[in-house]
Fold this sequence. Notes:
Blueprint: H1 3-35, H2 39-68, H3 73-93, H4 108-121, H5 127-147, H6 155-176
Amino acid sequence: xxxxxxxxxxxxxxxxxxxxxxxxxxxxxxxxxxxxxxxxxxxxxxxxxxxxxxxxxxxxxxxxxxxxxxxxxxxxxxxxxxxxxxxxxxxxxxxxxxxxxxxxxxxxxxxxxxxxxxxxxxxxxxxxxxxxxxxxxxxxxxxxxxxxxxxxxxxxxxxxxxxxxxxxxxxxxxxxxxxxx
Length: 181
């Protein structure tokens, strides 16, 4: 297999995995209230979920770099793919409580905007957190190198600081969200 073919295949698999991840995250967050209807438990679950996500973002690159010192990229990719398949099987094995399904009618246009309306009105879908995370991911390189005048090697340090801050807030959120929780 040529290098171009291997690169194309890797990109295709990465694209599929990212699409699955993009679909999983909102579905996971929207399912938590069905599993944990108590608001305090729900808030704690969201915080722990955010912390796990941040830990994965911080530790995965370090673990990958360490593994690349002892195994080749192809083996790392194979093990990562196996890990995703095992995760997918675990997700598929979970039995969730049934929720009330409501029949929706209307045109594709109406259904599309109904979905956006529900998303924007539902705090548990966490639009603010997604927007903040995307701003950090998109702007960190520019900010660190242009505004702070730092080298590209400082970008991972800045991202690690953002991740650490996010984890601290995730741990503290249930306690500072007030007595109503």
